[in-house]
Amino acid sequence: MKLSPLQMARYQYNPKLPGMLRNGISEICVENGNATESVADQAKIQALFPNTYGKNEITFKKGQNTSEAKKQIVGVILSGGQAPGGHNVICGLYDALKATNPENVLYGFKGGPSGLINDDYLIFDDEYINQYRNTGGFDIIGSGRTKLESEEQFAIVADVCKKHGITAIVIIGGDDSNTNAAVLAEYFAAHNTGVQVIGCPKTIDGDLKNEDIECSFGFDTATKTYSEMIGNIERDANSAKKYWHFIKVMGRSASHVALECALETQPNICLIGEEVAAKKMSLAQIADYIADSVAGRAAKGWNFGVAIIPEGIVEFVPEFSVLIAEINELLAGEKTEKFNALPSWKEKYAFIENGLTKESMAVFAILPENIQQQLFLERDPHGNVQVSLIESEKLFSALVKDNLAARKAAGTYKGKFAPQHHFLGYEGRCAFPSNFDADYCYSLGYNAFMLIQYGYNGYLSKVSNLSKPAEEWVAGGMPITKMMNIERRNGEDKPVIRKALVELDGKPFTFFAANREQWAIETCYTYPGAIQYFGPAEVCDLTTRTLALEKA
Ligand code: FBP
């Protein structure tokens, strides 16, 4: 494999651990915190997790290590979408495991949770692991989206663990994967398998956070990568002065990624899905809001601008959600075949017109034809519309164009409007982790092993105080059940980790809301530039604006 100079240089980077984990394995002891309760539905969660519910929060501190000196054979999986830093979680886990006892073994199950079920693995050694230190991606063992949630799967996993003598499993994943980690931990405890389960909080989306988890790993690097590109586009826009750029950014439902990028780059517009839902905004109202900025800037002679659109925006527009639900119903079961058999779009359109309510048809009618067709072509295996595939950056620029045409006809707007479209998604998920993510992830993995060594089960590796230098970070563990509540999923009540959406009374959104009117009309762009890996700490070790504001 040919190595880039940066890759070689990053191999030499020494990730920073929290101060309390820096004195060597023999000097790490446990401080017990309070017993915990789930965030809601306490009685129901307790009944579902009789063996793992209510355990104590714990913190590690400097002191005599009192853990049991038994040989550990640990299995690790990566679950779900890639997030920068995943390799370092495994490196940190491996280093702590080997530093504790060179006889300890780390299995990497390949391709995500299915690797555990299919018993498809590799065994890590120094040579293999050293090729992945401080690098992006999940290619060290691969990842996957198989859900580990049924009793049959758990029984197979228990057999696989027994076969290899595995004492603990580490699951590196988002809210769903860590929910499943908690259920697996309960299963192992109930069946006296002696196998522990520890989770690590991953996702670029930033929606796995709560009072205990300050941020999921990967959010820092992904948003820095997108912000670099948005800043570059802003500078291009400000140089050429002829385009309006509509930039969709990844992040699934929640708008944390979009908000963080807006705080970093100060674009003219950034939509926030949670606000759209709270204000029950229609597509036409959103278009009007963006068009106000376009017209306001045109009045100053600036026919250019930048708008950030979060990936999940359309799900938050109430009238659009109703439309999607009606389309899903319209094509349920055999009706899809009937629809597909219609020979032309004209006939399909008549079928749709016939099947939708008047209100939804009015929404459908204002969509550009390519988006209308997309709604009927791109279906998931259950036949539902794949909302995430909707090109919302094109949808909004088309709606804004219509709005501006009406303004022009009314004589209230005289500018030019030439849109460009971008989607920033996969570009950010496998970037070389920033120093923050490299340090945070290594610490999460190292800390996960300490939780294993001290015998904890059903805990999330927790590293906090993250807005401070790494020396001051606090390492410990939190029972996953503490983060759970009951939610309705696919027609059933399920215990799940609560997903964190953007809080409209939170400091990051409040800061954004206080400044956006000025950003909409003036040119206030900021250019973060590329992630810096070597140089002064105030440039290289910066955390996100979101975290800085939340902890200010
Ligand atoms: P996770 O929630 O598994 O971390 O994945 C997040 C994400 O990157 C979203 O931002 C995006 O919508 C989705 O994955 C894309 O998934 P896929 O990789 O399957 O296309």
Mean pLDDT: 95
Distance between the termini: 44 Å
Shape descriptor: globular
The radius of gyration over CA amounts to 25 Å
Number of individual domains: 2
* Oligomeric status: single chain
What do we call the CATH topology of the largest domain? Answer: Rossmann fold
Characterize the largest beta sheet: strand count, sense, and whether it forms a barrel: 10 strands, mixed
What does this structure look like?
The strands form 3 sheets. Strands 1, 2, 3, 4, 5, 6, 7, 8, 13 and 14 form a 10-stranded mixed beta sheet that branches. It is globular, with a radius of gyration of 25 Å. Helices cover 44% and strands 16% of the residues. The protein is an alpha/beta fold and 552 residues long. 1,6-di-O-phosphono-beta-D-fructofuranose is lined by residues 80-81, 83, 174, 203-205, 250-252, 311, 388, 429.
